[in-house]
Amino acid sequence: MAKTEDILRRMEELKTQTGVSRTLFAACPNSLSVIKASFRAAKRNNAPIYFATTLNQVDCDGGYTGMTQSEFTKILRREAAAVHYEGPYIVAIDHGGPWLKDKQSIERWSTEQAMEGVKKSYEAALLAGYDLIHVDPTVDIFLPKGEIIDIHIVAKRTVELIAHAEAFRKAHSLPPISYEVGTEEVHGGLADPKTFDTFLIDLKAGLAAEGLSDVWPCFIVGKVGTDLHTTTFDPDVAKELTAKVRPYGSYIKGHYTDDVSNPEAYPMSGMGAANVGPEFTMNEYDALAELEQEEIKHFEAGSIPQLSHITRVLWQQVYESGRWKKWLHGDEVGKDLSEVSSERQLWLVKTGCRYIWQKAETLVARQLLYDNLKYVGVNAEEVVLMRIEHNMDKYYRAFNLIDLNDMLGDL
């Protein structure tokens, strides 16, 4: 049995025994700081950690983190060992589908090119030892503006990608992995119940036709009220979707769980797992901005010779990257960053920092900040990691995961 299914199976057994429901916490590893904080939080909470990484972040070309799939899994092993974390952790592709990697969309790759690119990414992930792949062919850049992709095409491409991954895995004698399918966003076409049901029916028939009746996703992404700009989870919808997928052996997975106002409702609604990502980038930015104020105070006192100007560097790097344009609202499209409200500017920069953490200028400014504060007795990296961990702890508590590792046994 694949690792993820094994953990889910044990969690279901524990629910039967104790009446306590649990939801797996998935972190989007958009920086080395988030990776380090994840293992420290997992160690402290004595619970599993799930890394959901997009192809924009980690891929054959290094992504914006600078890590290939094999480098990523090696770094995870190193950081787990650094804090003596010996519990289970899940390594997954998040949103692995054509044109969901920005490069493919910007360069307008053909359908064949985009599908082949995703397949190559899957292969590298499998060879690197990933545990799960989110198969997400819910975008088609060649559709007329405003038109949603046909759900039958989504199911067909999902089957094609799973079949390729399974053929490659078996050809290389690799262990079983898990799958996640669908998306919560409107472009995915799974927003209404009828379409959701159609997708499940098509997927089951398509996998059977490929001789893959024994392969079925453990997670199906559901539209449960949260998206990039909302923070309210809808437990009633989650319960309805859970009732649909549990007979298939699947669980509903939530995305955009960042800063959700009612995280404790996830396990009570039967949610299998939930992703959190941009929230931790913002935590990292806030910690660096706080540290900069400490740096300025010591500079003005004459104990630091040169300022890092870390926030100025971050704003400049995010602006020059152009990646902030991806998140502009409809009435903001075409505007320069300086032309949107100050509140939106700050949000765009803070969430956009994930794209530039590994830029040379950012790394130099951060190192100068850390070095400056070290000489006045401040462990700056510790402050950054603790800020991120504080929010991770919130999900470990709300999702009833504390000390779960003791109850999982040998997996």
The mean pLDDT is 94
> Percent of residues in helical segments?
40-55%
Q: Structural class, from secondary structure content?
A: alpha/beta
Q: How much is the radius of gyration in Å?
A: 21 Å
What series of H and E elements makes up the topology? HEHEHEHHEHEHEHEHEHHHHHH
Number of helices, counting only DSSP H or I runs of 4 residues or more:
15
Question: What do these coordinates show?
Answer:
This protein is α/β, with parallel strands linked by helices and 411 residues long. 50% of the residues lie in helices and 9% in strands. It contains 15 helices and eight strands. It has helices spanning 3-18, 32-45, 69-82, 102-106, 111-128, 151-171, 193-209, 235-245, 265-268, 278-300, 310-321, 342-352, 360-374, 380-398, 404-408; strands spanning 24-27, 49-54, 89-96, 132-135, 178-181, 219-221, 251-254, 273-276. An eight-stranded parallel beta barrel has the order 1-2-3-4-5-6-7-8, surrounded by seven helices. Helix 2 (32-45) links the parallel strand 1 and strand 2 (49-54). Helix 6 (151-171) runs parallel beside helix 7 (193-209). The radius of gyration is 21 Å and the shape is globular.
